[in-house]
Structure formats: C-alpha cells, structure tokens
Amino acid sequence: MASSSDQTKMTIPLHFRSICLDDDDRSAGFVSIQPRSGDGRCRANLGFALIPEYWNQGVTTRAITEGWKLFPEVAKLEAMADVDNNGCHRVMEKLGFHKEGVLRKHTVINDKLLDCSKDMNGFPGENRSRIGLRKLLSSFKSSPP
C-alpha cells in the first residue's frame, strides 16, 4: 500500500472548467479557455465538450460565454474542430465565430486523419476591459475553489 507521500497530486489548469448541471455536481463536460502569452496574450485557444444528453440546449454556448468572463484581457478566442462536427460548428456560429479556413489532414482521431476548420471570434460589441494577465491569474489563484 502506498503512503500518502507516494501518491501523485493532480493539478487542474486554471484555464480548464467543468460544466456541472443539476444539483449533484456531476460533470457534463468542460470548457477550456487557454490564454496565450507574450504578444499573443490578447488571444486564447478554446476547447469544449459536452455529453450528448445535454446537446441542443444551449449549455455549451452559455458555459463558454460565462467562462470567457474569467479572462477579460482576452479579446479573441480561436478554435479548431473536425469539419464534419456540425454540433461544434453550431455552437461557434451562435457565439459569432467566423471560419478562417480549413486545415487539411490536421489531426488524427480514432486512427482517422481529419481536416479541421479554424474559427476565430473577437466577440464584437462586447466591451472588454484590459488588465494584466499576471494580475488576473494571481487574483484567480488566491480565490478558493
């Protein structure tokens, strides 16, 4: 039996959030908004997934909109998706994303080489405040989970 000092601790990155619904705190999916650094700190990579029983209810759209509020310094979200993933594209369209192009043979899922679309959004019309990334992250780290 391993002692507690032998056990590995798991750390969840600051940019990763579970989508919990109902009152049981069961995770129904996730949203990941990962800000870039340096000159690219005004942009962030977006990732998301949701279990099928909650599809077509606006859950992912709402979760992304709320999650993005945690990163006021981010002016533009960027996402990529399998060109055949219609649900993902519907979410991005509802959020105002614009397709920038298709990356041919860009990823492998289940041993299948797939094309991905690259979509970008600046959420036009939103008044985004500008604060430093370090300030945001330090205040975020100090807040209780």
TrEMBL record:
SUPFAM superfamilies: Acyl-CoA N-acyltransferases (Nat). InterPro entries: Acyl_CoA_acyltransferase (IPR016181), GNAT_dom (IPR000182). GO terms for molecular function: acyltransferase activity, transferring groups other than amino-acyl groups. Transmembrane segments: none annotated. Residues 1-115 form the N-acetyltransferase domain. This is N-acetyltransferase domain-containing protein. The lineage of its organism: Eukaryota, Viridiplantae, Streptophyta, Embryophyta, Tracheophyta.
